[in-house]
Amino acid sequence: MSPRTDSRNDQGDPAEPRTVLLRGGEVHSPADPFATAMVVEHGHVAWVGSEGAADAFADGADEVIDLEGALVTPAFTDAHVHTTSTGIALTGLDLSRTHTVEQALDLVRAHATARPGDRVLLGHGWDAARWPGQFPPSRSELDAATGGRPLYLSRIDVHSAVVSSALLDLVPGITSRSGYRPDAPLIGDAHHAVRAAAFGAVTPSQRVEAQRAALRHAASLGIGSVHECGGPEISDEDDFTGLLELAAREAGPRVIGYWAERVAGQEDADRIRALGAFGAAGDLFVDGALGSHTACLREPYTDTDHTGTAYLTADAVAAHVTACTEAGLQAGFHAIGDAAVDAVTTGVRAAADGLGIARIRAARHRVEHAEMLSAGAVADFADLGLTASVQPAFDALWGGEDGMYAKRLGVQRASGLNPYAALLRAGVPLAFGSDSPVTPLDPWGTVRAAAFHRTPEHRVSVRAAFTAHTRGGWRAIGRDDAGTLVPGAPADFAVWRTEELVVQAPDDRVARWSTDPRSGTPGLPDLTPGTQLPRCLRTVVGGRTVYAGPDE
C-alpha cells in the first residue's frame, strides 16, 4: 500500500491523521458489497463506497492510502485470551510442538540455562497424549532438568500441570489439597495453588514484557480487540489491572477484561467493577477440561472410570447470575462437559424464574467453551439469551475419530462436540476466540476450523464464522454497532494481502450461487484447507494504526 499524506492534519501526530481515505482495494462491508474505498474520520468509519465516488473525498483527506488491491475487513475480536500467559509462551518455554517426553525435558534444560535470574521457570503446552507411552515427565526428571529450581509446566489445556519439587515447597500444605497426586499431574485446588505461586513470582517487568509481546502479536494478526479472562484462580489482581492500564496507555488492541469471581451482592459487584472488569465472567469454573479428565460429564469417560470434576452447582450458578443481573453486571461461566452445561442452564433458568426471563436475556450472560451441548442445551441457550464464547481450533486440534476427544469420550460422543451449525440455527449468539495460549492466536485459522469442522454437520459458512470472530465479540459485550465497516462504526479494521475472494458455505450449491457477482454477497478469502491464509498488512484500532507490516 502506498500513502499520500499532506499537512492538513492539525489534531495530533501526522502519523495518525484525522481523515483518511483508503481506496483501490476491496472493502468488506454490508453497506456496499462492491465497495472499493472507505473514509475514516475521528476514529470512526465515515463512508464506504465505489472508486468513482471516492474522488469526491480525495481533496479533503489528510491521508490517501492506495490499497493496491488489498482487502479491508473489520478487525478480529478474540473473545477468550489469557494475555500474560500468552506472552510468556511467546517469549519463553513453549512445549506445544514437542513429540516426546525426552524432547520436552531437553527444552526445559535449555530454558533453565537461558534464564538464570528467573525465580520460577514457566512453561506451557505439553500434551502427553501425543507422546509415545503417553506419560508426562516425572517430578524427579523435572528436578534434574532444572537443577532443583522451581518449575511450573501447564498442560496444553491449562487445567493440569507438572511441577518440580522446589515449586511444591513454595506452597504450604500442598499435599493436603484436593487434586494433589504425588505421581501424576496436579489438578483442581492443588493445581490452582501452585499456579498462583508460580505466577506470583513473575516480576512486574517480566509481566509487562509478556503482555506487550502478546498484544503486539495479536495486532500483527489483525486482532483489534481481546477479551482477557482473568480471575483469582488464574492470575492475580495486579496482573489484571496492570494489563488494563497497559492497554489504556499504549497503542494496541482494545482489552476487555473479565474477572472470574463469584458475586453475592452489590458490594462484590462494585469491587469487581473497581478492578476495571466488564463482567464477573470468563473462566468462572463450573468444571475443568476434557484432556485433563476434569470436564464434568453425565456418563464416565471412556478411558477412565469417573465423570470428572464439578466446581459449581446449579444453585451456585443461580445465585451468581441473580446477583450479577441485579447489579447490572454481565455474568458468565466456563463449562465444557455436558453435566457442567446442565448446571449452567439449570442455574440460569432458576435465576430467570426469580427475576424474569427478559432481564436475564437483556444481560447477555455468556458461557465459555460450551463444548458438550445436547439439543436441549442448545434450545436453552437460545431461550435464555446466552452467548456461546467458543474456540473452533479445539476441534481442529482434538477432533476427529483419532483425536483426543474420541479417546476421552468414544467416537460417538465426541462427534457431538462443538455443534456450531445447530447453535446458529437456534439463534444463539456466537463469539469466537482462541483461549490462547491453549491454542494460538490465529483468527483466519479459527474461521477455517469452524467452516471445515471435523464433523461435517457442525460446519458453518465462512461468512458466519467470520462474523462470529468479528462482530460476535462486540455483541458479546453489548455493542451491536461495531465489528462491521458501516458509517458510524468504530474504525477497527485490518488490511490483508490475499488471493481471489469467494463465498464459501457447507452446501456447495449455495457457494456456487453466492460467488456469482449478481448475488451481491461480499466475498472473503478462500479458506479451503491447504490454501495460504491472508497476510496482515496493517491493523487499525479506533482510527489509529497499531500494526504496520514490514512492507508498509
UniProtKB/TrEMBL annotation:
Recite the UniProt keywords alphabetically. Answer: Hydrolase
The record's section on CDD domains has: YtcJ_like (cd01300)
User: Per its record, what are the GO molecular function terms?
Assistant: hydrolase activity, acting on carbon-nitrogen (but not peptide) bonds
Q: Organism's domain of life?
A: Bacteria
TM helices/strands, residue ranges: none
Disordered: annotated span: 512-532
Per its UniProt record, what SUPFAM superfamilies does this chain match? Composite domain of metallo-dependent hydrolases (SSF51338), Metallo-dependent hydrolases (SSF51556)
Occurrences of domain Amidohydrolase (ranges)? 63-547
What PANTHER family would the database entry show? IMIDAZOLONEPROPIONASE, PROTEIN LONG AFTER FAR-RED 3
Name the UniProt record assigns to this protein: Amidohydrolase
Please tell me the species this chain comes from.
Streptomyces tsukubensis
